[in-house]
Design brief:
heterodimer, A: alpha/beta, eight-stranded mixed beta sheet, four-stranded antiparallel beta sheet, globular, B: alpha/beta
Amino acid sequence: MSLLSVRDLTTEFATDGRRARVVDGVSFDLAAGEILGLVGESGCGKSTTGFSLLRLLPPNARIAAGEVWLDGEDLLRKTDEEMRRIRGSRIAMVFQDPMTSLDPAFPVGDQIAEVLEEHRGMGRAEATAEAVRLLRLVGIPSAEARLRSYPHEFSGGMRQRIVIAITLACDPQVLIADEPTTALDVTIQAQILRLLRALNTERRQTGILLITHDLGVVAQLCHRVAVMYAGEIVETGEIEAIFTQPAHPYTQALLGFLPARARGRGDLPAIEGAVPNPFAYPGGCRFHPRCGRAFADCAEVHPPPFPIAPGHSASCLLHRHA
Amino acid sequence: MPEETLLSVQDLTKHFPLSGGLLGGGGRHVVRAVDGVSFTLRRGETLALVGESGCGKSTLGRCLVRLLDPTGGSIRFRGEEITRLRGARIRELRRRIQIIFQDPYASLNPRMTVGRILREPLDIYGEGAPDQRARRVRHLLDRVGLPLRLADSYPHELSGGQRQRVGIAAALALEPELIVADEPVSALDLSVQAQILNLLAGLQREYGLSFIFISHDLGVVRHISDRVAVMYLGRIVETAPTEALFHNPRHPYTQALLASIPDPDPRRRAELQPLAGELPSPLDPPAGCHFHPRCPQAMPHCRSETPPRYDVAPGHNATCFLLDPGARPAVAAGSGAR
């Protein structure tokens, strides 16, 4: 049974009287202990999906439809106060910029201890001892001495570890990690990826939604993948199936762009144009104007997900009769 | 075809004095952003400079196009010493060496239309008659795959990929021989990145351009470059033909760097063996080999002595004492190769 179940999630942004469905009917499931990759290019709606799950949206955005079931409860029906308690304790988020989650005015030890006191009911002494243990766990050297350091005294990679330590303190059922390593150098990224992997296996089977544009990170970390394009999930499947037998032309193109997977020095297979503007999605399949395999129906019919294999589906008319 | 050396860099240094600030350093402290770098570039070749933040690759790139004045060492372009050129001579050099930036938005004048941005270098350098310049602008737009109507657009009206195409067209305007491309595709989405990489490769074939390609993305580097120089804290630690570097990295840092790249193939899922420690601050690099505090194979003298450059194969060298032929044979080369 899935821990997190998202159904037809739709989030609209309003600008100058116009509305854009940045997330448009997104559905997926996340099981305990699973890492699901949500991948796509900028503007595809993957980050907005993450923020919608936590109901952390800017004032000009609203969730227009859908359900977000966490352990049998629909988060979209919770009051703001209930939601505040759920955030941090049951569902938490790690951002690309760790300073989004850290308070520059307080020592990191206090920030971790506060979470432990609030969410796990610990006293100050117990919370401080646990904070040291968590900082050690995420690989902060001289953890005890660094409790009193402020966020600005740490490097970017160290700050992201501290955010992960705070996340561990919360002990959430679901972690949403939005480009958690994108701002980091590659040798530091490897350290953080190992931490995320450990979080998922050694702890209480946290379910992780990993939002990223980096297919290398996805290949190394995720169990399943959902590919987003223009506000919709266009393909979902097990990691190996997606990387070895991608069914949607967009997924195929994305994988083809990877210079690391290209053979030799020849031109990379490119597709023209760019991701469409959410204020003006093309009709039919939203990918059809850029798709090398589009046929007449693609401009007319909006493709639903078609099954490819158990656990693998793609929203593409090429698979209509599959 | 004879292999003509286009660019030759010897012992180049760029030091930034630390302004006094709170601690009142009085200019006695310097950041050695580029700390004795040597390499050559042949005509028509693409050499990649790779490394992590603070390794000095961008500073080096800016020294090569003389946006920064080197502190010491020498840069020779077609045999001519350009390290200390001034005034009109440096203007003449800018015809031959151009730079493309990661964020073209920051380098394109926001108050000029694309057409004016492309025309400006032609006007400044007095290239051809006015109607020829207009034709040249149209040709440039066409060559980088931009519709002619965009000549009347402003940079903010363009997408990231279109802006980078304008940046490339501006660099091409004066028909340079060498282009320094500093992270030209790092800010772009994969689909746009592929378009721009193909464009650069096509321009190189067509005009016989040479590239210094600065990047932190080793996947991109492997695809586009002929040779690679790996930098760590201001120094080049390894130089090799691209495939040799990826198949047989000899410096422990290169090995660690390659092992850190997440392989985009789930069937080759590796136990991540990250390099320990942080990147040291370039303000205060470790003594001896800069890499020794993070190096799994460091020996006592790595802490105090700077390793020289050892040739390991034709065109392949690395600065690591493990490669000293006089020393005991190196232990099985790390886990880097894939």
